[in-house]
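Newbie here. two chains, one complex. Structure please?
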Amino acid sequence: MGGPATDMRQKLLEIRGLEVEFQTRRGIARAVNCIDLTLYAGERFGLVGESGSGKTTMILALLRMIREPGRISGGQVLLDGVDLLKLSDEEMRKTRLAGLAMVPQGAMNSLNPVMRVGDQIRLSMSEHGQRRPAEAGRIEELLQMVGLRPQVAELYPHELSGGMKQRACIAIAISLRPRLILADEPTSALDVVVQRHIMQTLRSLGESMDATVLLVGHDMGLMAQFTQRMGIMYGGKLVEVGTVEEIFSSPKHPYTQLLIASIPSFKSRGEFKGIPGVALSLLNPPTGCLFHPRCPQALDECASVDPSLKELDGHHTACLLYGREGTHAATPA
Amino acid sequence: MPPPLLEARHLRKVFSSGGEPFGAGSETVATEDFSISISAESPSFTTVAGESGSGKTTIARLLLGLMAPTSGQVLFRGSDVQGMRPTERRAYRREVQAIFQDPFEVYNPFYKVDHILTTPIRKFGLARSKGEMGEMVAKALEAVGLRPDETLGRYPHQLSGGQRQRITVARALLLQPKLIIADEPVSMVDASLRATILETLHRLYREFAISFIYITHDLTTAYQVTDNIVILYRGAVVEAGDVERVIDKPMHPYTQELVEAIPTPVPGRGWLAENEEVEMGGAGGGGVESRGCAYAPRCAHAADRCRAQTPPLYRTDAGGAAACYLYGENAVVGAREFAALLVTDGRGEC
């Protein structure tokens, strides 16, 4: 259902076969494993998964900010048709903030404590490709766009509350009008009331600039309220992609089903549903489907066949329960 | 009637900072007039909920005797925990246990996880032999859903956050406590594991008749596990009562805003729709306003009276109380009645 409608929209980001590996003493850990994903202009997309599922690594890979011992070992990241992985370091630096920008998780640690907020915004803009100094009033305008008083430009970070710091970080992120805003759990350290106001601000900014917002996190409630489409990650792979309504009302992949069922709600008391088993080790991943050792619906062939993301009416699921075309046999480790 | 297991009477904690030679200095009231009573006879599961800066952790530290109140008292079986006799202190340290937020920080990375489990046994002389100690450890691990052979002999970094947090629960359990104070025990573990850990706590409450004070910012998990809830705002209790009543039908304007702001996992609720930009003032730290209701500056119902004088707790209905003049026609709830509000309905009795 969501398929034809979204296809009409302009593609903004195309991720093709993206892989990120970490070289460790005990072997290679593939933290991002052959990800294919398309984001459209102006949409709000949510990426969820438990810790260690590779969601933050993927965001960093899009920004080409993976550090040693990690490296991007394959794939393409096309932003408006330009492959970011082929740009020179200098070109990439100019693309950050101007093409795609990140709103960090810990706003409290992301600002320079000895520099006024206004100066930090100005510096970020000049560092990332703005040749002329920011025109008069632009800093104040940015602060107002994120719901801060213009006078905040003259303050130091310690004079701001957590929510105000996060707003200042958003002001930096939107300063060069990026097409894509990457938000990595931007409100995980904030109160729910402040969280709601910040997410409202992010939404209206995205709409007014026609920017795509990619929200990463594991708060399913926040995802349900903020996003339009979602992707579920497990062990560095995307296991399901669909509209937020489809993911919550008819999840297809068994992992997504368990994830949805484990969300506590105000409907039931004294009921606890966790996901059985332990998170996988990327150094020693199981053969076949990565989720099969924990999957209550696993088939015999799940241990040997690695399902690839398969489209069902615009909804994508990587699970053998929905057929095996396009899947490939796992190479024995 | 024997005294309560643990009782807090009119706790107030003020943190001072600055002062000479750094200028005038400032005072922050972290906790204002907090009272609670945990029965020694019937177990209860109570949540103390609030946002950051509301004074939750200060309350946990006061109840655990890790910090002395500025005024007020914490009583363990009737005696003040500040200045207890050594034998009483030993009983207090054994019967009241803590689970902390961060399952990484509580471990010494150089010791195997066995160390954190055997230390309390040795300190309190609970086992007569090594074999008995091993059995106790194994039993405690099994009670929290861990397999001893997969857990013991490992270092903390070899276990997941969820496993580590369950070991801290096992450690608390070893001492056969009467009360466990859990300060944000699941905020640092994954959503899929939260359910497992909360289920463990709930089972200990039901099967071992251990009382819990669950300190959290997360009303959704509070709703899942507790009988009673206390909502804090800037150090003071704004609402308390039966958890279903407080969450399903909040009475205090702050609780209403809080419950409304929770992003629920049901798409299309219009959570993002209202875009009333709030003018953000100066840094919003903790601390109570010197006069009047701390919530008044944000409250849609605020009247002159709210700014002039802090409202006491008024009874809202049979199951709850709220510190708000909207209920000013009802009876004022004193400390004793407040404690009675938080007495469980007996669901936890075995």
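Moderator note: Residues 246-260+292-350 of chain B form one domain. Chain B touches chain A through 48 residues (CB under 8 Å). Thread marked as resolved.
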